[in-house]
Amino acid sequence: MKASWLVPIAGVAALVWLARGLVLPVFLAMAFAYLLSPVVAWADALALRRSVAVGVLFAVIIAVLLAAGLLLGPRMLTEASALVDRLPALARQIDTGLEGALRELVEAAPVFRRVLPADGGWAHRWVLDRAPGDPSDLFEHAGHLFLLAILVPFFAFFLLRDLPRIVTAAMDRLPPQHVETSVAVWRELNGVIGRYIRGLVLDGLVVGVLAALGLWALRVPYPLLLGAFAGVANVVPFIGPLLSAAAAGLVVLLTPGQGLAGVARVAVLFLAIKVLDDTIIQPFTIGRSVHLHPALLLGSVVVGNHALGVLGMIVAVPVATVLQETVRLLLEHRRVLARRSVRPDAGRLGG
Amino acid sequence: MPDRRLSRWLAWARDHEQARRAPFLARSPLFAGLPRRLLGRLATRFLEKAYSAGEVVFHEGDPGRALFVVVEGTVEITQATPRGEYLVRTLGAGDAFGELALIDESRRSGSARVGAPARLLILYKTDFDALIDGEARIAVVVMRNLSRVLATYARRNPVALTEPGPRPEADEPP
């Protein structure tokens, strides 16, 4: 690598470090832009100016979100506020059940007395004491969310509008001898990431709708909230579906009249959704875009969790996919070169 | 009055760069016969790059990953022979080269060097494959045109197809 390349690379790295607070909004904006890019490409094919196409698209999205908010918002708000109102009672219920079970356990096997903490009220502390005590914390959280809600569409708008110009400018600055190979790798990765993100969102949407409908059919309380949670959690491989099933199971357990039979019904529902997702939904939505080995997939999620928490778990799979695909492409290109060098006349006609 | 305002707005809302590409590609023998709608979709998959005179687009023996279409300027296709570099042809606006990259990643059979400062449209195999996955008609038309190009080449150089080996004397410079 030429020394002249080190200066801009170091400059970009320094800029990323200084603007590290913007990494999350930019990452989410990129994902959002990938999601919308097929629609913008369709407008490109009609030779429509990008700013007009992206502007109209954003106006339609805002209208759809407003309509969805008007249709589903009140119901979801009712479910959420009912859940929040019931939280202290639910926490007490869980604690009473847990303490009873632990008391029985300690009576049966006194050795556990040394291992288990003496004080109770775990659920109460875990659920209720986590709420921000200081109003300024609440404002800070709300401020972050508000900033994300503004910055993500803002960056996505400009990414979608200006990407062709950015790509052309970057290509004009690339040394000609590197254009074909480097851009080929980028285009392939671009295709894989785009298909993966669009597939993931579609998959989460289908799983969320199926979960909400199934829970509603089983007369489980808060079907919309739990369905939305199942759809969002589905983004995190392995752990997400387990978490959403556990949340629904817990709600059933605390609902009078449902009991263990209700929990079993919910477990069967989530198992059926998982099987359906793995065998039918994912092959249609995500398809062949990602071939991560299950061990690599789980490992990347664990590493992501350690590095960035929940966000890390969400971005772990795309990042691991990009790394894997880059290595695969480089090895494949090396193999192609090696094969061709054995047969120097292969592709003699290739123009 | 409102009609004139609407047509002015429609003209403003039009992406002239994209609008220029589709008819331009239609003139290339490789994309002849594609309907306007599909040409529009194909045009969105091309990237554009400016080259200075003397710059090499690719070297003979490089793996081919993209097709190039000359928008402006000239590109010289050369081949190395035991007697030195042989100019196969000089391409101008509308001409395409590197077509076989759309089939596989064969090594380039010649080098491409820019004669006069040029702008090239570049279509990567990955993008072409992604497009024809949803639009089989593009694949049929382009592959038919590509077969014609190959047939023309085969009629001119029959030995090259049947006996892989050194280029026949007929193709070498006098």
Short structural description:
Chain A is an all-alpha fold.
Protein described:
The complex is a heterodimer of chains A (351) and B (174). Chain A is mainly alpha-helical and 351 residues long. Chain A contains 12 helices and no strands. Chain A has helices at residues 3-18, 23-45, 50-108, 112-115, 122-127, 135-173, 176-217, 223-233, 239-253, 259-285, 294-308, 310-342. In chain A, helix 3 crosses helix 6, helix 7 runs antiparallel to helix 8 (223-233) and helix 8 (223-233) packs antiparallel against helix 9 (239-253). Chain A is globular. Chain A starts with a helix and ends in a 9-residue tail after the last helix. Chain B is of the alpha+beta class. Chain B has a single domain (22-158), classed as Jelly Rolls. Chain B has helices spanning 2-13, 16-26, 36-44, 125-134, 136-156, 158-162; strands at residues 47-51, 56-58, 66-72, 75-81, 84-91, 96-97, 111-114, 118-124. Chain B has a 4-stranded antiparallel β-sheet. In chain B, strands 2-7-4-5 form a 4-stranded antiparallel β-sheet, with no helix packed on it. The radius of gyration of chain B is 19 Å and the shape is globular. The relative contact order of chain B is 0.18. Chains A and B meet through helix 2, helix 6, helix 7 and helix 12 of A and helix 2, helix 3, strand 1, strand 2 and helix 4 of B.
Characteristics of this structure?
heterodimer; A: mainly alpha; 12 helices; 0% strand; globular; disordered C terminus; B: 174 residues; alpha+beta; Jelly Rolls; 4-stranded antiparallel sheet; 6 helices; 25% strand
